[in-house]
Design brief:
579 residues, alpha+beta, Thrombin, subunit H, six-stranded antiparallel barrel, six-stranded antiparallel beta barrel, 16 helices, 38% helix, 20% strand, GTPase
Length: 579
């Protein structure tokens, strides 16, 4: 019986052993593209009708290639075979990518991460081949030209994609681009034509032109650009690339400041004092004088355009051009000392919600002062006289107010603040309507008056799994809602009345009052009849600044009332009342 039991147990083990399934090999382990013939055969079997599976295989294939100890010549040849298929996969990924909100929704973030990884593996293959050739002293100028050119091109694509979603660049990517360009210069191939240029996004760029282009885009301060503008900026620099020259000797620079790339750093070119630069072979100076002159000319040409455009540079707008001139010619030092903070502030984002919140929180005592005690000519001066006005805001339940008015009130963490603005980060990593250039109202918890300050988003950075950070510039310590009832000098298609925000003069803070309206409705010299509280005023817009935000930031003057001629019906108005 004991023998029988032993046999059964033994049979049981054998059965178990036989039924254990053998683990399937990973996809990457099944790929062998270590030769040109194998690579051609492998891409011929890609299921092109299933782009999801094709992308998966391509990503695994190029990752495997980067792990294989093959010669640099074979690595380049195989990567060139994969390149058209990888480009198709990248184009397909773009169809599934949406940037309607920031930080990116989960699905869009995954697509973005995959695209970035695929581009980095592609660039990495070319970079590895170039370094191998130079290390092993087996340099083919033609192969080196292809490998360095493609590597910089696709690293540049990664950087532009990052800028488009306000993401930070990967560490070492700028160091790698500088290093590759320096290697091209040492081998005197930086200005040579790259073979099969049609494989590089259809753009016929040399290594030096690619290097110039990505540094120029970086000089535009991408995290201060409005959504979608980074593509327009790149398009502009593509068109004007030949107007930019690279100088290696600082002695040839006549100005005190220049756009300089330090090639042993992990940063793009920046505007800095020339005096800080030693005569070094690891620095390059970009001469943008001709481009800046072109932008200045465009600003003048588009000044009177209804939409701020001009056919000569259709990718630019008047606003974008003026902001480009500013960032390309101004060293941006902080005007105000920042103080670290760790408190939550309430935010209202987008103009209509800002208007609603301001209207719902206007102090009755203040409006009474405007409506009853102020002469017509001094309505706007009254807005500065706030010392004796009690504030009813302190005890307002903003969350309840949001529910009642359908206004979205967001809670953001204050990281730092100054007299000029705030540095904020999201309390929770979630989709936000925040945009660069958007009008914002912020309620600071340290403000005992509970004022809703009017601000604009100046910059924005997005961090994966963390959320957004943004900088606000305060436009005014408070605002008032105004209504445009009539435009008296011309006809417009916009239906009236239309609401906007008045930013009053404030002693020591604001020297002049301004009006804010939605963009592209009014223009300079428009004469408006506006209502503040229950009082009407006739004003003329004297200038509109479209660089402050994605709205019309207006200067204006108050028009005197036209006096009625003696003997006219209107001149006896007070008599009718008396009688």
């Amino acid at each position: 019986m004991s023998i029988s039991l032993f046999k059964k147990k033994n049979n049981s083990n054998e059965t178990t052993k036989k039924s254990t399934p053998q683990a399937e090999p990973k996809l990457i382990d099944t790929i062998d593209i270590r030769s040109v013939s194998k690579a051609r055969s492998w891409v011929g079997e890609l299921p092109m009708m299933d782009m999801g599976e094709t992308t998966r295989r391509l990503f695994a294939g190029i990752t495997k290639l980067n792990q294989e100890p093959v010669s640099p010549q074979i690595r380049i040849d195989v990567t060139e075979i994969l390149l058209p298929y990888v480009k198709m996969a990248l184009e397909n990924l773009d169809r599934h990518f949406q940037t309607r909100s920031f930080p990116l929704p989960e699905r869009s973030q995954k697509v973005f991460d995959l695209k970035r990884s695929l581009l980095m593996e592609l660039a990495g293959s070319y970079q590895l081949a170039a370094l191998d050739m130079l290390t092993k002293n087996s340099v083919s100028k033609k192969k080196l030209l292809v490998s360095i050119g493609r590597a910089i091109q696709y690293m540049s694509s990664v950087i532009v994609n990052d800028y488009a979603v306000y993401a930070k660049n990967q560490k070492t990517i700028w160091h790698d681009i500088h290093h590759l360009y320096l290697l091209a210069c040492e081998n005197k191939i930086e200005t040579k034509e790259i073979p099969h240029k049609d494989d590089v996004n259809g753009e016929n760029f040399s290594i030096e032109e690619q290097y110039k282009l990505i540094n120029l885009v970086a000089l535009a301060a991408p995290n201060t650009l409005r959504h979608g503008e980074v593509t327009k900026v790149r398009e502009f620099f593509v068109k004007t690339l030949n107007e930019v020259s690279i100088i290696s000797n600082p002695d040839k620079v006549k100005s005190k400041f220049a756009h300089i790339a330090l090639m042993n750093s992990d940063e793009p070119a920046n505007l800095m004092p020339v005096s800080d630069l030693l005569n070094s072979p690891t620095s390059r100076i970009f001469d943008l004088s001709k481009v800046i002159k072109l932008i200045d000319q465009f600003v003048s040409l588009s000044e009177d355009s209804d939409l701020g455009t001009h056919y000569k540079l259709p990718m630019l707008t008047h606003s974008l051009a003026k902001r480009l001139v500013y960032v390309l010619t101004t060293i941006r030092n902080r005007r105000y000392k920042r103080f670290p903070r760790d408190e939550k502030a309430s935010l209202v984002i987008k103009m209509q919600d800002v208007i609603t919140m301001i209207r719902d929180n206007e102090p009755e005592s203040f409006m009474d002062q405007i409506n009853e005690d102020v002469e017509d000519d001094n309505i706007y001066e009254a807005l500065a006289a706030e010392d004796n006005i009690s504030s009813p805001w302190s005890d307002i339940d903003v969350e309840a107010l949001a529910d009642e008015r359908e206004v979205q009130i967001h809670s953001w963490q204050i990281e730092n603040s100054s007299s000029g603005g705030y540095g904020l980060k999201q309390v929770k990593n979630e989709a936000s309507t925040a945009r660069v250039g958007e009008l914002v109202a912020i309620k600071d918890p340290n403000d005992t008056a509970g004022l809703w300050q009017v601000a604009v988003t100046r910059w924005m950075d997005a961090f994966k799994n963390i959320g957004l950070k943004m900088g606000l510039e305060i436009l005014s310590l408070h605002g008032m809602v105004v209504q445009v009832d009539e435009i008296s000098n011309r006809d417009i298609s916009q239906k009236l009345p239309l609401e906007g925000v008045l930013l009053p003069t404030i002693d020591g803070a604001r020297d002049e009052a301004n009006l804010i309206f939605p963009g592209f409705i009014f223009q300079a010299e428009d004469e408006l009849v506006i209502t503040l509280g229950t009082r009407q005023q006739h004003v003329r817009i004297t200038a509109i600044d479209d660089t402050v935000g994605n709205f019309a930031y207006c200067k204006y003057e108050v028009l005197e009332k036209e006096e009625s001629a003696d003997g006219s019906l209107e001149s006896f108005e007070d008599v009718w009342e008396f009688l």
